[in-house]
């Protein structure tokens, strides 16, 4: 069965349908990772987006129970050059097509994904719609022009109620803005006593849990659409050590008086080089974001830039000059991706330890 992708600029790509027969629209983005399609499509940070994978063959090792980054994928569509019909891997339990059908996600294959990627890089991310071949492109474009991008993605993917993952180490309150399970796994690996709370949990309620540290997770959308989180971070800064990842990094910056801005096409992939300014060490990182902290807004603030992206010099890490708090734009839990930056979780635990010792001798 034929299916088409219609972009808001009028460009049309016609290919083969797979997955669900639903018609969905969303912001069309691309990811350059060669592997990890299961983690990508289940990453809550893609909520409401149509994801294009640039690697030509997707689905060849199937879908397994262990590699999900969330229980239910939140993407609105998946575009690939070729979807493998017969996956071959001992852990595989179903095909990519079967998963997309089960989750109501439409897929499109057989188009020139290189052409689509170059178009997005040239013109920036655009709204698009995956629909039947019978749809009139002019009518679809008119609808996309009127369609506003959603602003409630964090609310849609955040946990609705607090829950605990008990451990015998430090208590960490993990604020869920669209948390990848990899973050939780890395905290559990360090024996942390983790309490996961919804995105809009007030500072007073978080502090009432008596945390040793606070983790701000990744998540989808524009950080300025979550003002309640900015207010919460402002109130906890200095009271408890804090570590922000991706959207958490951007929210941390906003709470410290910096600004954020939308990128032309963002960073999405598992091979982005990042430099730590203090040591000049280069790490290969996993990234997924469409917004960045404005470099100009850091001037005369209480923040220090700790990491930058090699490819475009955008800010990739921040630390507070007075309080025990830091953040990174990339994913140290790296699911999928390299584990170069996993030590940042150990840095967070060390910060908690130092803070507790200072309080004990104060």
UniProtKB/TrEMBL annotation:
Lineage, opening ranks: Bacteria, Bacillati, Bacillota, Bacilli, Bacillales
Record EC number: 6.3.5.5
Complexes and interactors: Composed of two chains; the small (or glutamine) chain promotes the hydrolysis of glutamine to ammonia, which is used by the large (or ammonia) chain to synthesize carbamoyl phosphate. Tetramer of heterodimers (alpha,beta)4.
Record-linked Gene3D superfamilies: 3.40.50.880, Carbamoyl-phosphate synthase small subunit, N-terminal domain
UniProt record similarity statement: Belongs to the CarA family.
Purpose: Small subunit of the glutamine-dependent carbamoyl phosphate synthetase (CPSase). CPSase catalyzes the formation of carbamoyl phosphate from the ammonia moiety of glutamine, carbonate, and phosphate donated by ATP, constituting the first step of 2 biosynthetic pathways, one leading to arginine and/or urea and the other to pyrimidine nucleotides. The small subunit (glutamine amidotransferase) binds and cleaves glutamine to supply the large subunit with the substrate ammonia.
Protein name: Carbamoyl phosphate synthase small chain
InterPro entries: Anth_synth/Amidotransfase, CarbamoylP_synth_ssu, CarbamoylP_synth_ssu_N, CarbP_synth_ssu_N_sf, Class_I_gatase-like, CPSase_GATase1, GATASE
Residues annotated for L-glutamine binding in this entry: 45, 219, 221, 247, 250, 288, 290-291
SUPFAM superfamilies for the chain: Carbamoyl phosphate synthetase, small subunit N-terminal domain, Class I glutamine amidotransferase-like
Organism: Exobacillus caeni
Pathway in which this enzyme or protein is active: Pyrimidine metabolism; UMP biosynthesis via de novo pathway; (S)-dihydroorotate from bicarbonate: step 1/3; Amino-acid biosynthesis; L-arginine biosynthesis; carbamoyl phosphate from bicarbonate: step 1/1
Keyword terms: Amino-acid biosynthesis, Arginine biosynthesis, ATP-binding, Glutamine amidotransferase, Ligase, Nucleotide-binding, Pyrimidine biosynthesis
Active site: 246 (nucleophile), 331, 333
Annotated NCBIfam families: CPSaseIIsmall, PRK12838.1
Domain Carbamoyl-phosphate synthase small subunit N-terminal: 1-131
HAMAP family registered for this protein in UniProt: CPSase_S_chain
Molecular functions per Gene Ontology: ATP binding; carbamoyl-phosphate synthase (glutamine-hydrolyzing) activity; glutaminase activity
């Amino acid at each position: 069965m034929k299916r088409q992708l219609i972009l808001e600029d009028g460009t049309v790509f016609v290919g083969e349908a797979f997955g669900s027969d639903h018609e969905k629209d969303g912001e069309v983005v691309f990811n350059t990772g060669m592997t990890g399609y299961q983690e990508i499509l289940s990453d809550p940070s893609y909520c409401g987006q149509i994801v294009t994978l640039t690697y030509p063959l997707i689905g060849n090792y199937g879908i397994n129970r262990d590699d999900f980054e969330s229980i239910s994928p939140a993407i609105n569509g998946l575009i690939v050059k070729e979807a493998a019909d017969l996956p071959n891997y001992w852990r595989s339990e179903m095909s990519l097509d079967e998963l997309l059908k089960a989750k109501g996600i439409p897929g499109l294959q057989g188009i020139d994904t290189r052409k689509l990627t170059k178009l997005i890089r040239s013109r920036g991310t655009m709204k698009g719609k995956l629909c039947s071949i019978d749809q009139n492109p002019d009518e679809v474009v008119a609808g996309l022009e009127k369609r506003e991008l959603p602003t409630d993605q964090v609310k849609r993917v955040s946990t609705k109620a607090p829950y605990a993952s008990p451990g015998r180490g430090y208590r960490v309150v993990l604020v869920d803005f669209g948390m990848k399970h990899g973050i939780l796994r890395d905290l559990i690996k360090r024996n942390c006593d983790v309490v996961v709370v919804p995105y809009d949990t007030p500072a007073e309620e978080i502090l009432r849990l008596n945390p040793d540290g606070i983790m701000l997770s990744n998540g989808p959308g524009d950080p300025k659409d979550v003002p309640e989180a900015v207010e919460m971070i402002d109130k906890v800064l200095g009271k408890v050590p804090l570590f922000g990842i991706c959207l958490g990094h951007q929210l941390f910056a906003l709470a410290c008086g910096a600004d954020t801005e939308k990128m032309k096409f963002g960073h999405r992939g598992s091979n982005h080089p990042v430099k730590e300014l203090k040591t000049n060490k280069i790490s290969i990182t996993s990234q997924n974001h469409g917004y960045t902290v404005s470099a100009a807004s850091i001037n005369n603030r209480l923040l220090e830039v700790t990491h930058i992206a090699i490819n475009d010099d955008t800010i990739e890490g921040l630390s507070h000059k007075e309080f025990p708090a830091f953040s990174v734009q990339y994913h140290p839990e790296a699911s999928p991706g390299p584990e170069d930056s996993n030590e940042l979780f150990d840095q967070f635990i060390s910060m908690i330890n130092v803070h507790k010792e200072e309080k004990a001798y104060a």
